[in-house]
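Let us work through a complete example step by step.
Step 1: write down the sequence.
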Amino acid sequence: MLGSKLDILKQEWIDVVFTGRNKAYGAYDLRKANPRNTNRALAFGIVFFVLVISLKTIINMIDGFIPKADEKVKMTDVILQPPPPEEQKKVPPPPPPEPPKPKTDMVKFPPLVVKPDVEVKEDPPTQEELKVADPGPKDQKGDPNAEIRIDEPVGNSDIKQVTEDDGNKIFVSVESSPEFPGGPAAFTRYLEKNIKYPGVDRENNVQGKVFISFVVEKDGSLTDISAVRGPSPTLKEEAIRILSKSPKWKAGIQNGRPVRVQYTVPINFTLGEEQ
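Step 2: predict the structure and record it as tokens.
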């Protein structure tokens, strides 16, 4: 024996095994190159294992050397809602009006309470006082012109006849509508005589109706003249101009008196006839 420890992969043993055999067959070369191939495979395995374990670390290191592209910021329009309206402070209601004076004078009549004479602070009215005045909660001067009121509070207010009449109220519908002097036919003749057709609209063949809104005052004058709608701005301006020069109208009548009335009339602009 060559030794107590046998290593069949040693070259000496390989030569002994293949003594007198065909070493060119291939098995001899495999046995001979086995240590080198085993070591090489082990080295490759260790390197591959290390690469797999440290792959994430390597990638992070590579990312640290590569400059990153600028991040694109996406702009989004944000529509802000208007703030909630502030709560308006509630205005306290006005104090109630002072009640009117009574028709006759009043003398204070204290409530009847049974007490000793020494504890009485107020004496009741005398019979002479009650002949010319009525008993009441307090001394009150009367008004001979006042109406007789029963079970109603009294005060120091003088009675005044107040007639509510809002002279600035604008009516939309009245008993008798405003009218141009002479009626609708006269109004048409007035327009035909005084309207000047704008040149730009004549060249562009612009035609149509202009609706004019205005207020007929109590004296018949026209105020707050405006063009509600129309085919062109220049036709609107011409309609406003001609109404501004209009003579006074017949005022609207409501409850037998002249009032302010909101009125709307159409003015037709056409190139079929000379305006």
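Step 3: interpret the result. The longest helix spans residues 27-53.
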